Automatic annotation (TrEMBL):
Keyword Transcription annotated: no
BP terms from Gene Ontology: carbohydrate metabolic process; defense response
Species the sequence originates in: Olea europaea subsp. europaea
Region feature (Disordered): 351-371
Listed Pro residues bias regions: 355-371
Cellular localization per UniProt: Cell membrane
PANTHER family the record matches: GLUCAN ENDO-1,3-BETA-GLUCOSIDASE BG1-RELATED-RELATED
GO MF annotations in UniProt: glucan endo-1,3-beta-D-glucosidase activity
Catalytic activity: Hydrolysis of (1->3)-beta-D-glucosidic linkages in (1->3)-beta-D-glucans
Key words, A-Z: Disulfide bond, Glycoprotein, Glycosidase, GPI-anchor, Hydrolase, Lipoprotein, Membrane, Plant defense, Signal
Membrane topology: Lipid-anchor; GPI-anchor
Record-annotated membrane-spanning stretches: none
Protein name as annotated: glucan endo-1,3-beta-D-glucosidase
Length: 463
């Protein structure tokens, strides 16, 4: 073989290997929904830096097409899914409008920002109104055509569905889509997705199907399982049961070959008194179990070995969300980047991204004030911190393996039996064990560093 032929062969092999790597890195890690309904959330540039440097998350999903976020994620290698607002659906049926939409919202950022999905609306069949439902597939086709005509071929068009599209899900073998939606709306959607090799995206929430009797089944905890007598498959968690119910329903319409993706799933870590399921242990168990399942790549009983794109809801606790307290507490992180609980997505020790200052560029690692020999420091709860905030701090620290025995009944630091005293003890234990960096005493702004020893009686604070 002469040199030119060998060089051509090498180029082809190199191109194939690049495509192979790109294809499989798209599903390396679990994704997360990045919502912005908060007045205390960090700037997008800090979020992008944090996710890239401190976590294994390599996919985010937006509920809009936020240009500041798209710019911030340019060059990070993190995949970004964007969402067309539901109200735009009728307009997108017009191909000329769709082309202008692509020119304004996608082309300025792609491919520097790795946009991988455009979702046309969110849970359109569930929320309506009917004119949006009637125009959904036509809008998806128009937008796909606009992307192709704009020279963009690496972005998939889809839409996310609430599981109200199912008439039944238990057992999965008897699942089917709701009459009316099945033939009239979902079959045309699936036909488009098959043609464009895009996934059918759903939002399964075992959270909404929770009952105390089935707590372990919902939370990925050990349980006896539930056997589907028709397929002879045993389900050990509700997530698998819901995904297989969707798959069976797709198959009954003749579209079992279309991939499934998970647009939203998650668990609230706090709630009102009427929401006892909303706790940090439950949220950590569900989302942690989901991450473990995803990393193992074991699929479901009917789709063994299948690795789905999954986006956990959500990245941050969002304090401006309406509704019950639980709606504000689906986040994996607080706005200061401290984890609400650990689900195994951090790269080493968590740290807060740098906040830029006018006089100096942002460094690549957090600036901290190291302890001065002989100058002891402690971390305590601020006087203005609420009991709810302090309880959240206690729950977080104790869930991370710290010794919280001293604040339990009969413990050396149980008295005084107040949230503030107990929180100060565990917050200081965390601060001391992590190296006494200032940011380890932040606790969403509820911690303060002091130079006087807060120890009292038999209660000795760590130093």
């Amino acid at each position: 073989m002469d040199f030119s032929n060998r060089q051509s062969l090498f180029s082809v092999l190199l191109f194939v290997s690049i495509i192979f790597v790109q294809h499989f890195t798209a599903v390396n890690s679990i994704g997360v929904n990045y919502g912005t309904l908060g007045n205390n959330l960090p700037p997008p540039a800090q979020v992008a830096q944090f996710l890239k440097e401190k976590t294994t998350i390599d996919k985010i999903k937006l509920f809009d097409v936020n240009p500041d976020i798209l710019r911030a994620f340019a060059g990070t290698g993190i995949f970004v899914a964007v969402t067309v607002p539901n109200g735009e659906i009728p307009n997108l049926v017009d191909v000329r409008y769709a082309r202008r939409w692509v020119a304004n919202n996608i082309k300025p950022f792609y491919p520097q920002t790795k946009i991988n999905y455009i979702l046309v609306g969110n849970e359109v069949l569930h929320w309506g109104p009917q004119n949006l439902v009637d125009n959904l597939v036509a809008a998806m086709r128009s937008l796909h055509s606009a992307l192709i005509r704009s020279g963009i071929s690496g972005v998939n068009v889809t839409t996310a569905h609430a599981l109200s599209i199912l008439e039944s899900s238990d057992p999965p073998s008897l699942a089917k889509f709701r009459p009316g939606w099945d033939i009239g709306d979902l079959a045309p959607t699936l036909k488009f997705l098959r043609e464009t090799r895009s996934p059918f995206m759903v939002n399964p929430y075992p959270y909404f199907g929770y009952s105390p009797e089935q707590a372990n089944f919902a939370l990925f905890k050990p349980n006896r399982g539930i056997r589907d007598r028709f397929t002879k498959r045993t389900y050990t968690n509700m997530f698998d049961q819901l995904i297989d119910a969707v798959y069976v329903s797709m198959k009954k319409l003749g579209y079992g070959d279309v991939d499934v993706a998970v647009g939203e799933t998650g668990w609230a870590s706090a709630g009102d008194s009427f929401e006892p399921k909303c706790t940090i242990p439950n949220a950590a168990s569900y989302n942690g179990g989901l991450v473990k399942k995803y990393n193992q790549g074991i699929g479901t009983p009917l789709l063994p070995g299948r690795k789905f794109d999954i986006y956990i809801f959500s990245l941050f606790n969002e304090n401006l969300k309406s509704g019950a307290t639980s709606e504000k507490n689906f986040g994996l992180f607080r706005p200061d980047f401290t984890p609400v609980y650990d689900i195994g997505i951090m790269r080493g020790t968590a740290a807060v991204p740098n906040k830029p200052t006018p006089s100096a560029p942002t460094p690549s690692t957090p600036v901290s004030t190291p302890p001065i020999p002989g100058n002891k420091k402690w971390c305590v709860a601020k006087a203005e911190a609420t009991d709810e905030q302090l309880q959240s701090n206690i729950d977080y620290v104790c869930s991370q393996g710290m010794d919280c025995g001293p604040i339990q009944p009969n413990g050396a630091c149980f008295d005084p039996n107040t949230k503030r005293a107990h929180a100060s003890y565990v917050m200081n234990s965390w601060y001391q064990s992590k190296g006494r960096n200032d940011f380890d005493c932040n606790f969403s702004g509820t911690g303060a560093i002091v130079n006087s020893d807060p120890s009292h009686g038999p209660c000795s604070f760590l130093t």
